[in-house]
Design goal:
Elements (H helix, E strand, L loop, with lengths): L14 H12 L6 H9 L3 H15 L3 H8 L2 H11 L2 H14 L5 H10 L2 H15 L3 H8 L2 H11 L9 H14 L8 H10 L2 H15 L3 H8 L2 H15 L1 H14 L5 H11 L4 H12 L3 H8 L2 H11 L4
Helix pairs in contact: 1-2, 1-3, 2-20, 4-5, 5-17, 5-20, 6-7, 6-8, 6-9, 7-15, 9-10, 10-12, 10-15, 11-12, 11-13, 13-15, 14-15, 15-16, 16-17, 16-18, 16-19, 19-20
Length: 316
């Protein structure tokens, strides 16, 4: 599958050469932020790992530590995010979300609802290696109820594959019976079906559901559920329909609220830059009538803005 990312591997890549450029940008008085952000945003994650190794070999220093001490603020957050391998980055974001003061549920929801089964398995491994703990256990210690149970289902990374035609209608009817049709909601049915069926299967279920219920499944979830469970279910539904669509909406929310949610903005721009940023850009433009590029220009500034625009990869 051709990558729909905005960041592609740099063609004439030379890790040793890049390491030297970065060292020069950080050595002596003052830091050349421009050079750092232009170089790192134009390399793939795999290439950044090679630069890290070449830097240590040539200078006996840790590139990430040097970047941390030379950069500051949001630019530092963004550059350090680019330097982490994807699974480790996600594992660290989850760890921070769980172990910080109060649980950042929006981070748990975003990552666990949007990553593929393969990615989730890698994240679970990375979490154990980096933090010496089981992701599932940490989630259980910090959440409760049906919300907890749905997160645990997602952490298994065992979604079914393909479409089971014989079950589409049955699933739609069960969801309808579990929600709209009765007083009080049977959340177990919802979390089981939404947590375990494939995206292709769920899209068919949602079509069938609309015919039976006369409304979108999202409407029913908003009526029936509240709080974190509602947010998680909605994220899972949106990702089943379109992962880039989900991220286009999340990016819009991160910038178009009062005050920019930079943590979310950075996480999405970094984690989708090599996956589906081109699709996210196209959907965003169609849905909101302006490009992500122009929204970033309006909402951010300085070197931080420049780095985000490089990751965005162009104006639509």
């Amino acid at each position: 599958m051709a990558s729909r990312g905005s960041v592609k591997p740099f063609v004439n890549f030379n890790a040793k050469h890049d390491a030297e450029i970065l060292r020069k940008a950080m050595k002596g008085i003052g830091t050349d932020e421009d050079t750092i952000l232009m170089l790192l945003a134009a390399r793939s994650n795999v290439q950044r790992q090679e630069i890290k190794a070449a830097y240590k070999k040539a200078f006996g220093k840790d590139l990430v530590k040097d970047l941390r001490s030379e950069l500051g603020g949001k630019l530092e957050d963004l550059i350090l995010a680019l330097m982490a391998p994807p699974a480790i980055y996600d594992a660290n974001e989850l760890h921070k979300a769980i172990k910080g003061i109060g649980t950042e549920d929006s981070v748990l929801i975003e990552i666990l609802a949007s990553r593929t089964c393969e990615e989730i398995k890698e994240i679970v491994k990375a979490y154990k290696k980096e933090h010496g703990a089981k992701l599932e256990k940490d989630i259980m210690g910090d959440t409760s109820g049906h919300y907890q149970r749905m997160l645990v289902i997602l952490v298994q990374g065992k979604r079914e594959e393909g479409v089971d035609e014989s079950r589409v209608e049955k699933d739609a009817k069960e969801l309808f019976a579990a929600g709209e049709e009765k007083f009080g909601t049977d959340e177990d049915k919802f979390i089981n079906i939404l947590g375990n069926r494939s995206a292709e299967h769920l899209r068919k279920v949602f079509e069938a559901y609309k015919k039976i219920a006369g409304c979108d499944i999202e409407e029913s979830i908003k009526d029936e559920c509240t709080g974190n469970l509602e947010a998680l279910m909605l994220a899972v539904v949106k990702c089943a329909k379109s992962v880039p669509g989900y991220f286009a909406e999340s990016l819009r929310d991160s910038m178009r609220r009062a005050g920019t949610d930079d943590e979310t903005l950075i996480r999405i721009m970094v984690s989708r830059s090599e996956v589906d940023m081109l699709d996210i850009r196209a959907i965003y433009k169609k849905k909101y009538g302006e490009s992500i590029y122009s929204t970033i220009q309006e909402d951010t500034d300085g070197d931080y803005q420049k780095a985000l625009l490089y990751l965005c990869g162009g104006n639509d």
